[in-house]
Amino acid sequence: MGRRPSVFVRPVTMDEGRKLQRISRTAKDPVKLRRAIVVLMSAQGQTVKDISTLMQVGEDYVRDVIHAFNERGFDALDPKWSGGRPKTISDQVREHICLIARTSPADWKITAFSTWSLSKLAEHLVKYQVTAAISRETLRRILRAGKVSWKTTTTWKASTDPEFIAKMHRILALYDTPPTDGRVICVDEFGPLNLMPRKGKAWGLVRRPRRLRATYNRYGGVRHMLAALDLATGKLYYRIRPRKRWREFLGLLKTLRARWPGEKLYVVLDNFSPHKHAQVRAWTTDNDVELVFLPTYGSWLNWIEAEFAALRYFALNGTDHRSHGEQNAAIAAYVRWRSARAEPKTAFAPDSPIRSWTDYPTKTA
Q1: What is the average pLDDT across 133-157?
Q2: Which residues form the Tc1-like transposase DDE domain (predicted)?
């Protein structure tokens, strides 16, 4: 058998050469990149054998690319995906599978288990003739394509407060348009603060997590942080005490009252019993302090909760303080750092659905 004649790409213009070079440097698709390099090398005079050796491809592949470019030009560089074999499971059946996966086995009078595994779900689909025998991998892909994923079940505690909407709107009004005759203060307790190693996140070498000691006992008792967030300045004020009774809470209110004399204080707070103590109510009435209570199970409406989350993340997580003095110093350092960068608090959840609530939702997604 004689030697096959050498095949070369047709003569390319200067602009075509530049375009081939650009594609060979920037193409993201590996097929297009490989084809462009083959054509470019052939245009430079390299033989099919040399190209196949350098590119680690077959000579027939090189000839096909060159012939295709000679016939169709740059269109030949783009891969034409065939899309694989036709689907054996229709779109309607796939949608049905996703709907069944979102149900509970109890909905089908199955009491042996409370949740589906892929194998159990596959057996169920075959039993009810939804589909023929189906592998777990195929089922996993169908669920993934249908945006059905494996999720952890969470709880939701709905508010039982009949005045939820009215109280929420009152608090949102204070946040959105602070009164001109005073300032809005968000108050809450943080803790208990005990002495223990706290899990956290930190940069470290791969597969070498930072280790903290394990403890079996809690020594030194606990402390409680009573804090107030001034929305006008964004600054956080706090005190740490062994207990959080009405006496400690009243002491915090007196400190706030002394800090802003002559201004009415609108104090947003939850329904913790010391907040409603008779002596606390009497003192606030006599000292121009209005207590604005959150609706029950509505602590997420208290702006200070986000500050507590940041304090826990940056000042406590990943630490192992051996004394309350050491832990209190870490909290104080963080609060000083934060206060130096504080800005007025504005725009509380501006795009949240709560803004359009007229009734408390009875169901959650």
Answers
A1: 90
A2: 183-318
